[in-house]
Structure formats: C-alpha cells, structure tokens
Amino acid sequence: MMFSSRRKPVLYFKEQRRLTWDHCSVYKLFGVCLLLLLASLLWLQLSCSSDMAAAASSQRDGRLPQQPPPACRSESSPRDEESWGPHKLALLVPFRERFEELLVFVPFMHSFLNKKKIAHQILIINQVDHYRFNRASLINVGYLESANDTDYLAMHDVDLLPLNDALDYGFPADGPFHVASPDLHPLYHYKTYVGGILLLTKKHYHMCNGMSNRFWGWGREDDEFYRRLRKAGLQLFRPSGITTGYKTFLHVHDPAWRKRDQKRVAAQKQEQFKVDPEGGLSNLRFHVESRQELTVGGAPCTVINTRLDCDQDQTPWCLL
Ligand SMILES: [Mn+2]
C-alpha cells in the first residue's frame, strides 16, 4: 500500500505535465502554421511581381526570358491599365476533337498574352457537323462571332505553342503578320507559307473577303489565302531578330490521327490549287448551335459550337 500510494502522485504529476505539454504544442503548432501561411502568401506575392518585372525588363533588352511563364494568378494585371494599349485580339482557334491539346493551349496562351499585355478573347470554333474539317470556314465564323471590342484577329492552330516571349502578337497595323514564319515553323519552310499563326486587322481580313469556304479536309486553304493577301495588295510581315529557329514553337502534330481529313480526290485537288475569286465571308453558310463560356485551367475562353453547311453540288468532297 505504501508503495503504491507513494508512486501514484508521481504518476499523476507526470500525466499532468504531459497534458500541459500537449496543450502547449497544439498552440505552438497552430502558431507556426499561421506564420508559415503568412510567409508563403507574402513570398507568392513578391515572386509574382518580381517575375513580371523580370519578364518585362528582359523583353526590353531583347533577351529571351529564361523562366517559364509565372504560374501565379492567371488574371494578372487588369486590362484597364493604359500600358495594355487600345487594341484587343480575337484569338480564333478552328477546332474539332482535340480536347487534350485544348486543355494545354487555353491556359498557355492566356498567360502568354497577359505577360505581353495583349488584351484578348479566346474563341474556340468547334465544328460539330459531320462534314470533313473546314479550317477556313471556321475562321470565317470566328471573325463574325468575335466580340465587337476586338479589332484584330489571330488565326491560330491549336497544336502550335509559341515558346519565345519575344514573338510579337501586337496589332498588325501595316499588314498581316505571320508569326509562324517558314524560318521558325518546325515543319513548313516554303516561302509563301502563311499557315499556323497569322495576325490580321479585322479591316484587312474583310478586305480579303475572309477565307475560301471550298477547302474541306486538311491543307491548302492557307495557300489560297496567301493569294488573297496579294490580290488585296497587302504586304506580309514576319518576325525578325528571333534567335530560337525551329525551336520557337512547340508543335504537337500527329498525322496518324484523322485520316479522313487527309484524303484528297481529283476534283478537290483541281479546285484547291486555284484561287476562289468569289467565295469567302460573302458566301459562308453556318449555324451556331450553342455558345459556352468556359474556364480552362483558370483561363477564360468561348466555345462556339458551329454547324457548317456544305453545298454538295459545289463541293462534293466535303462528305468523303
Ligand atoms: Mn499541325
């Protein structure tokens, strides 16, 4: 008895001490967590603003920023800032069934253009009819469906990502600006190539009557558009002083996909090496099935679900 009664208080005391120590550590832990949270918030804020400053200064120097785009706040600076300029870009993406590429493209381009202080609207023109893919008609639809406050457009392939921040996406006042120039595009190197990424003022696009609607399936619609540019008397501009060569873009291109869009029949070949003198915005036939405002990886875009109309007497190859 003596033994146990002498021992008990000690045990009790020990337990109590442990109890108070536990209490203490819970409060300490909470305090430390709070401090860590505050510190990380502060760090995020500081690193974001310094990243932006670094990107801006290296752009002024003409150097390539080494860092990837800052992953912080996608809605960086508000576009009311005067430094963003008076112009707004309609980024037109002709699209069908390339969901995995879209998931990368939209947040990438949103952050790329914000970094360059280019006000923009991203429009995904999604072809939902059962005809073959018609890139040119979808771009025509994008031009007509883009917001009134946009004054220039980019026809932009979804599989081509600009990796060099020095590339100009600004308002092409003097004439069309071919961002994906043959000197920089990883795949197409002929002199008259204007595909991939081309910037135009809406006024110049209208002067060309848009693009031809006769091109169903892949290819050649951009070559026909080159002739329209020439016919409209527009001078074509391309990037200069870009030192990254064929590594300027990431091209996610897999020709094994969509065999149907690569087929060419004789009649189509004949038509598609010619100029289409009348067609364009003036004879475009389409129906917008629905519009969806989406946020992809924190970046806003508008999906325009488009049903194109094919005149099968005129262009029977839309149904191959
Ligand atoms: Mn491609």
From TrEMBL:
Signal peptide as annotated in the record: none
Which CDD domains does the record cross-reference, listed alphabetically?
b4GalT
Q: Which GO terms describe its molecular function?
A: metal ion binding; xylosylprotein 4-beta-galactosyltransferase activity
Q: Which GO terms describe its cellular component?
A: Golgi cisterna membrane; Golgi membrane
Q: Which cofactor does it need?
A: Mn(2+)
EC class: transferase
Keyword rRNA processing on entry: no
Ranges for the region named Disordered are 58-84
Which keywords are on file for this protein?
Answer: Glycoprotein, Glycosyltransferase, Golgi apparatus, Manganese, Membrane, Metal-binding, Signal-anchor, Transferase, Transmembrane, Transmembrane helix
Domain Galactosyltransferase N-terminal: residue ranges = 82-169
**Quick one: which pathway?**
Protein modification; protein glycosylation
**Enzyme nomenclature, EC number:** 2.4.1.-
Q: Where in the cell is it found?
A: Golgi apparatus membrane
Q: Name one GO biological process term.
A: proteoglycan biosynthetic process
Q: How does it sit in the membrane?
A: Single-pass type II membrane protein
Where's it mainly located? Golgi
Give start and end of each Galactosyltransferase C-terminal domain: 176-251
Question: Pfam families per the record?
Answer: Glyco_transf_7C, Glyco_transf_7N
Which catalytic reaction applies to this protein? Answer: 3-O-(beta-D-xylosyl)-L-seryl-[protein] + UDP-alpha-D-galactose = 3-O-(beta-D-galactosyl-(1->4)-beta-D-xylosyl)-L-seryl-[protein] + UDP + H(+)
Function description: Required for the biosynthesis of the tetrasaccharide linkage region of proteoglycans, especially for small proteoglycans in skin fibroblasts.
Family as reported in the entry's similarity comment: Belongs to the glycosyltransferase 7 family.
Protein name according to UniProt: Beta-1,4-galactosyltransferase
Q: Which organism is it from?
A: Hippocampus comes (Tiger tail seahorse)
